[in-house]
Structure formats: C-alpha cells, structure tokens
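Lab notebook page, bench 4
Experiment: in silico fold of construct C2
Operator: M.H.
Input chain length: 153 residues
Purpose: comparison with the prior construct
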Amino acid sequence: MGLRADPSGIEGLPLQLLIVAIVLGITVPVVYAGLDAYDRGQVRTRVEGELLRLTHAAQQYAVAGGGAETLALDLRGGTFTTMEYAWIGDRPGGPFANVVRYRISGEGERAIVIERPTVSMSGPDGTTLVLGAGTVEIHLEVLDDSVVMRVVA
C-alpha cells in the first residue's frame, strides 16, 4: 500500500493541477451567477410580499374608516443582494400618496400602486416614509382620510 514507483508521476502532476485550475476557472463564475440570480429572486419576492402585506393592511383600515396596527416587516437582503430602500407614500394629495417604491441592488426601481381602493399614505410628518434594509416594525393608523405610518423604535 505504498506509493507506486512511477517515474512519470511527478511530471504528470503539473498537468493535472493545470486541468483542475481550468475547470475551476470555468465553473466558479457559472455557479456564482446562478446563486446570485436565485438570491435576487428570493429577496425580491420577500420584499414585495412584505410591502404588499403592509399596503393591504392600509387598505383594510382605510375602508373600515379607522383603526391601527403594528406590523413587523422583513426587508432584509440576501447573501449577494441588498434592498437599497423602500419609499412609502407622499404628502397627502401628493403624486406618490398611493405608491410604494422600492429598489433592490442591481435592478431598477419598482413601484406598487395602491388602487381599488386607492389609499393615501404618508409618514408621521406628512411626507414620504423612508425605510432601509432590515427588520422593521411599522405602526399604521388612519388619520384624516390618510393612513399615517411610522417606524416603531
């Protein structure tokens, strides 16, 4: 069970290492691209699902004419992808009062328009509520025909 006495064994080793390096050089970028695409899809699905959950709650309370709720939103990024921002609403009557805009790294901005019923949303100071990546708790309540949202500390 010792090493074989092969005089060409030492000469064949550099060639084998070169072949392994070439195979790795071809394989690693393909694997990385696949993982990146999978991660981006998972982050996009999670962030959009959480923002839709928030907008549906806002619609329910606006239709009911009042109420309040605190929601925990999971806006974390993934291994290769991050959520850059989420902008919710605008000043009452503003052009983006019924729109949630968000961006994931490597993609353009996406928008969710809240209609049927249209709900006006804003931050606590009457302007756009700006959120970053991470897990965040949002308190929403209906005030003067608008859903006001604020981050719970």
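Observations: Residues 9-64 form the longest helix (56 residues). The CA atoms of residues 26 and 118 lie 51 Å apart.
Next step: discuss at group meeting.
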